[in-house]
## 1
Amino acid sequence: MRLIVQKYGGTSVGSAERIRNVAARLIETQRSGAEVVAVISAMSGVTDQLLKLAGEVSPQPSGSEREMDALLATGEQTSIALVAMAVNALGGKAISLTGAQAGIVTDRAHTRAKISNINPKLIEELVSEGFIVVVAGFQGRTVDGETTTLGRGGSDLTAIALAGALGADACQIFTDVDGVFSCDPRVVPDATQMQEIAYDELLEMAGAGAKVMQSRAVEFAKKFGVPFEVRSSFGRKAGTVAKEETASMEDVVIRGITIERKQAKITMAGVPDAPGTASRIFSAVSAANVLVDMIVQNASDQKTTDISFTIHEGDLPQTEELLRPVAEEIGAERIATQSGVAKLSVVGIGMRSHAGVATRLFDCLGEGGVNIQLISTSEIKIAVVIEERDADRAAQLTHAAFGLAKPAL
Amino acid sequence: MRLIVQKYGGTSVGSAERIRNVAARLIETQRSGAEVVAVISAMSGVTDQLLKLAGEVSPQPSGSEREMDALLATGEQTSIALVAMAVNALGGKAISLTGAQAGIVTDRAHTRAKISNINPKLIEELVSEGFIVVVAGFQGRTVDGETTTLGRGGSDLTAIALAGALGADACQIFTDVDGVFSCDPRVVPDATQMQEIAYDELLEMAGAGAKVMQSRAVEFAKKFGVPFEVRSSFGRKAGTVAKEETASMEDVVIRGITIERKQAKITMAGVPDAPGTASRIFSAVSAANVLVDMIVQNASDQKTTDISFTIHEGDLPQTEELLRPVAEEIGAERIATQSGVAKLSVVGIGMRSHAGVATRLFDCLGEGGVNIQLISTSEIKIAVVIEERDADRAAQLTHAAFGLAKPAL
């Protein structure tokens, strides 16, 4: 019999009514002739409530990471019990399992644990007895029986890891979007939903602002070769399947386009070209917990170089402040900053085998009068920084230039 | 070093501020030179919220008792993590344990499990390492690792059972009352707080309307000889110690007086005095889940008998209804009912060795013009049914007659 793992996020189980819908869907899947394992997140809002309480009893909950895990794990434990009850109430047969009961063993890194091993024996027994097995996402246990949580995107990770360990025939990640699109449909109305996407493409798109899945879960799927489908929990339409790349995928030059807004650009100009200067700059920035996205360096003459990088706009004042003494120390000529910029990325494994992708992108933006401020490329992605006010138009132009639009009816 | 088990109920941990207070108290107890194990209930209101959600997803959650336990156990798991965090935030050193982690093994009777075994090894290790060990009340696990809950009063039971298994030097049950009183101080202003009470007396008082502790927890303490102190979590005053009876306890004729209001009395009159009639009546009543309190039978002639019993007033219409066909079947002459009655009980192991207690009670009520409708006695309790409007006055008269008042200053 087919074995299907279905993951439902916090919004999908956000109320009693939605929980009943999920239960009905699980029963329907089982009755279609499959064994069913469900992975469930905490009801939306619950984790935030728990974090708020934690903040009230302990101004620095970071000193109690073990307790934070014990606390947060209750969110998923509540929702799995409710989902199992709802299945039973609808005449189905369900049993809930915590991460620990489900055999999900992790390392000891509380609040950001890594799955080290899964023992799927109990789940296998239960599904073969006809149970819909409802597993708590986001959590596991150490070999000593301590409760751990997997950090952001943890429930997706649980689903993919279980699908891998169980050798599932399908892993379906239910979310509030229909799948992965060639571009944000709010920006590009004729954006198309992809039928499939390579793991690497999804990773680049996630890193570039398309928040469909957390990168950790996708990386895990890639590492263990677990295909999964991202689809909507509200409709019945097929979603987008993420899987290992196939030869035919390379026929598509560009898979998708992403825009990340509210970025800021910082340039340290006239930096003496000596070993260790870049390290000095970025260790100072990361020590302040500011996330750096793109980094571009180009030498303007023999002795000095310009280093530019992008950060989130909100981090700009703090970063400018902390870089002033650094600039002095390393002998930089000046610091230039610009907020109100956006990053546009085009992603596709096809660009490995298709020449001229970058040229086509630059041409299309140039013809549209969109000025490019920074360029950064990887094997399957080209990212450019542009004025934020040009972002929508740039996305529309690029989408058309690479032929990503829906075919006309 | 002394080992102290402290139990805090839902009201004591009902908000972040109260959780911090409990944490401070635990640290203070440890610094006074003791090893400390805390048993914590769910924050007040949380269990009701979970039950409400369960009712919304499943009209008959009784079909999912395993899931109900998994659901309800999260309430205590949340509060122990928060208490442990709060202790850590105040500079203490705490660790939370679920019932399962604490080694509390139960039978498989979900929602009303009995503790079958406690393995206190982990707790002993942790307290000897200087941890304040914060254990989830009300829950355990089966030998197969399934989560179970202990039913009403379960957290008190956890505390007493742990105190027994650990050989604790003290077990303190913190509640919102100062201790056990000779009568309800709202009715009898000069009621005194007892320093000590025998398990049996506390059991009779609990059964008679003084809702200090659930009977199951007291019975457990009696069975395993675990003394415990009921005291307030808001003040610093000593409470009431429940323990095995001592010779000196018998010097006190009456320990306390309780009143239970909103009772109703039903009399089946002229019932043929044949084997099985009482059984027929009470099996019909209990099948409808109506709790019967006092039962009194007295034969009025050779051939027939009158059977009277008390129930909660709210159950009267339903009970009257269901008894009509039963009365016909067994050939009873008539059914008489009366609502608006109350039960007054006097409790004390001293009445075993003091003659005339009943007489003194009846005299005092008679002199006060309080009419007695039913009498029922046990070895250490005398209960009478009276008009509810006489209840307060009857309690005051009895309290004075048995010399229970506070000594004048």
## 2
Amino acid sequence: MPQDIKAMMQEIGAQAQSASQILALASCEQKNHALLKAAQAIRNHKEKILAANKKDIDRAKERGLSPALIDRLLLDDARTENIAASIEAIAKLDDPVGHIMDRWQRPNQLNISRIRVPLGVIGIIYESRPNVTADAGILCLKSGNAAVLRCGSESKYSSRALHKALVEGLIAAGLPKESIQLIPTQDREAVGELLKLQDYVDIIIPRGGKGLIKRVQEESRIPVIAHLDGICHIYLESSAAIDKAVDIIHNAKMRRTGICGAAETLLVERAALSSHLPAILDRLISSGCEIRGDSDVQKLNPKILPAFEEDWKTEYLEAVFSIKTVENTAQAIAHIARYGSHHTDCIITENPLHAEKFLNEVDSAIVMHNASTQFADGGEFGMGAEIGISTGKMHARGPVGLEQLTSYKYQVRGNGQIRPL
Amino acid sequence: MPQDIKAMMQEIGAQAQSASQILALASCEQKNHALLKAAQAIRNHKEKILAANKKDIDRAKERGLSPALIDRLLLDDARTENIAASIEAIAKLDDPVGHIMDRWQRPNQLNISRIRVPLGVIGIIYESRPNVTADAGILCLKSGNAAVLRCGSESKYSSRALHKALVEGLIAAGLPKESIQLIPTQDREAVGELLKLQDYVDIIIPRGGKGLIKRVQEESRIPVIAHLDGICHIYLESSAAIDKAVDIIHNAKMRRTGICGAAETLLVERAALSSHLPAILDRLISSGCEIRGDSDVQKLNPKILPAFEEDWKTEYLEAVFSIKTVENTAQAIAHIARYGSHHTDCIITENPLHAEKFLNEVDSAIVMHNASTQFADGGEFGMGAEIGISTGKMHARGPVGLEQLTSYKYQVRGNGQIRPL
């Protein structure tokens, strides 16, 4: 059986590569045609998709999955319409392929242009949410890449139904149906084989828990774009406007506690402990947030639990917030360098010099001044859509949108130039 | 002993990371100061450097290395001056760090900029040529990265002497001497340990033979920017101007046969066999080039050897050229897609439509029209200097210069924005 899986994955890889060569040269119109037809197919087959999703939900309930996980799996009329609408939104985005990034002439009259080209074949491994099947497949398609998708077993029926609709769009536009493939088996070996397809797959994007990402980074011979922890910090200075600070911090922590851009640690300049922190604590505690603080912070409110070393290293992803006192901007930056995860960090201050110091010195994908860390999102950045947020520095950093799914090539136009010795 | 090497490499990694945090914030002036002082130190210590080089050369002769390898190792007055001068040239290049790549405002008034930042710590593993110690160290420094260098054992004395001069420059400029480290041991285990330093090293660049690159790609948990084969093609059409074609092809093949941008295979449109190829063959054969052709090509000259399937897959890196007949542009593109290495490929034609088809459809880092493939070089592209040519698509493709040694981050400036639900 493993031999069959190996052969199947080789076949999937080879077909994806062939498809990618056609996609790389497909016009924007043709790709958009496939997108719009896929959106239409999702609407046309809504009943089938919801029926498939019911099978996933029933299995999830049998297996005793948590209500939160079941909610992530669930599709209904509105969510299905959302998937179709977001495909149409991607159709409206500019095509990155063929964009001239740069152009110059050399003294010997050689004309050099650097233009965007697709990466080739993108393997995406993801868990639970079925809409990723559509989002990821469509982002790859629009950026001229072939996609090899591997969904979590919990969403297999929903993902298959959505994938069928995408293939309908591809066929309607005259593009290879292998442009977006969904690995059919649920065998765990298939993931291992996908990670070994370095002859066919150009890049792997894992979307899921730390276990998945660790496995991919350890096993893969293929370059990986991955999102690791989102231990996001807010540094609050005494010069901050109190109302702004209360609103930003509450939003950064509590708007959605389970997303990677949610704040996990608040660093407070000592001078702001008495002036700013009480109002912030009131707002957070009355919203049901658990606070863990150092001894200076604990003095402000009896409800505050003690924070331990482990708290500074923890991405809670729930309504828990750690708070630490620091003496100044430099100490805040040093804390973030030591405990942060290079994702998103923010300073709240009315001191422009401190703000610029923080923006320049903190080594994170996204550094912010006076705004909620929950803006860490490709859509909020105006990139239209994203496939995730990269915490690595190679290739793509921060939100991974259409542009980040491309490479480039140099076109050199001459009229007989030869290189002197 | 291996335990000592492991501990030593961990120490080197940690020191490089600390240095990289300082380098990332160093001003252009400070970095340039280190560069100019290093160039001066190389001139000041020229005698010591040449004496060290003599030890390497003597060892190489004892070990019976080929004259070509010994020549690659050799330093003399002119080559040493060249190293110093090229450091000064890098000082004159624009600093990529801090460059604003893009800037926009969102409807909610958030101001977003994307700015270049260094990658962090770059590990470079290279063979034989001692000047790489200076080139690689200096390119990393100018782009704000710390460098961990591992030279080949053949150049160890020369590399150490050059490294000393670089450290003199660092110290003179007040930068950490660990900004450029040369792994002191010659143990083979040190390479293995370097490849495992994923907590400290952000990127590995191997420069050397296929064995080295294969080892690095297989063992490393760190992202790799690598140069694999340079199987460069020229496609010659019957509409080409004969004189241009003869000059370009001769230069592309024979200017230097051992560099990655040297042409290895000529594809000839059938209609050009009798009109163009004879003059080209005359020029190549009289320059001492061995020709291997298909049966149609062989008919043109009795000196032509038969080409076999293996020839289309071979990067000769010497005065050998394979020639194949194709029917049209599409067939040439298909041959390159099958046998090429995505490095540099060129079309010689006076037909602008065919030229554009070739430039768009050939999936190589560099695609050329009517110019020698030997222009595949960061210096010739105006990038000032390069650390190699990447044949991968992730992060950097083609010449890897200062810009390609950077990542970016997003700076977001707000005035109290919170994200709506």
